[in-house]
Sequence to fold (124 residues):
Amino acid sequence: MRLQNFRKMRIWQDGITLANDVYLLMGILPESERFGLRSQISRCVISVPSNIAEGSSRGSQKEFAHYLSIALGSLFELETQLMICANAGLVDLAQIEHVTKQTIQLQRAITAFRRQVAGKSAGL
Fold:
């Protein structure tokens, strides 16, 4: 397998953009959530582009697909945490609408790309 330049991958670029936007959103969360939701949200949003980058360096398409699955799981975790913030009244639903849309779009893009990568690993 040829190593992929993750910096040129649209899903990685979108993951970086999402992380930046989520960090701006986290600034409005109460200080009492510093070690709770803020910390959890930070870890999962950072996980997305990080796992894409790490997976791109692996020796097989199968391993890369695995890291894409981890990134995808982190996106679903992020979406859940954003809804918890809204449901708990920590943020207004309108405040998270943009990042929720970004999250869902990135979930779709990674899912499609993972299928493509997994297909290559199966020799399809």
In short: The two ends are 15 Å apart (CA to CA).
